[in-house]
TrEMBL record:
GO terms for biological process: pyrimidine nucleotide metabolic process. Zn(2+) binds at H78, C106, C109. SUPFAM superfamilies: Cytidine deaminase-like. Belongs to the cytidine and deoxycytidylate deaminase family. This is Cytidine deaminase. Residues 5-136 form the CMP/dCMP-type deaminase domain. InterPro entries: APOBEC/CMP_deaminase_Zn-bd, CMP_dCMP_dom, Cytidine_deaminase-like, dCMP_deaminase, dCMP_deaminase-rel, Deoxycytidylate_deaminase_dom. Gene3D superfamilies: Cytidine Deaminase, domain 2 (3.40.140.10). Keywords: Hydrolase, Metal-binding, Zinc. The active site is at E80 (proton donor). It comes from candidate division WOR-1 bacterium RIFCSPLOWO2_02_FULL_46_20. GO terms for cellular component: cytoplasm. One of its GO terms (molecular function) is dCMP deaminase activity.
Length: 151
């Protein structure tokens, strides 16, 4: 029996987490891992207690805002934000951890990752946010573009 490599294993979990996303534009999942143990997970969608986004309520679709721009014009939180918030909510220390995402994080998420002490990022799909890429290069986060398996 062949066992998957750790990055393959955690990216599969990240894809599974993304299936819970409630965003009408893109399903994104993220997990935070340390010592090969999942510490927290998150997916994109409206804050808890809020109605899920719909085609009719999506400000980004209504205003034709391209991906990677005007992040503040959205009711939802990003998967990376939700994973960091879940860790904080449950008192889980994520310093020196790895974040797995099925898409490259935006600049807001990158800033949160830096301040949360995340040291490694594995992401699969691209996202059009050049400032996020610049900040990742300037940070001490080790960035790996995942090339294995299905996204």
């Amino acid at each position: 029996m062949s066992r998957p490599a750790w990055d393959d294993y955690f990216m599969k979990i990240t894809r599974d987490v993304s299936e819970r996303a409630t965003c009408v534009k893109r399903q994104v999942g993220s997990i935070i891992v340390k010592d090969n143990r999942v510490l927290a997970s998150g997916y994109n969608g409206a804050p808890k207690g809020f109605n899920h986004c719909t085609e009719a309520t999506c400000l980004r679709k209504q205003r034709a805002i391209p991906s990677g721009e005007r992040h503040e014009l959205c009711r939802g939180l990003h998967a990376e934000q939700n994973a960091i918030v879940q860790a904080a909510w449950h008192g889980v220390k994520i310093e020196k951890s790895t974040m797995y995402c099925n898409y490259q994080p935006c600049v807001i998420c990158v800033k949160m990752m830096i301040n949360a002490g995340i040291v490694r990022l594995i992401y699969a799909g691209g996202y059009p946010d050049e400032l996020a890429l610049q900040m990742l290069k300037e940070s001490k986060i080790k960035v790996v573009k995942y090339e294995g398996g299905e996204q």
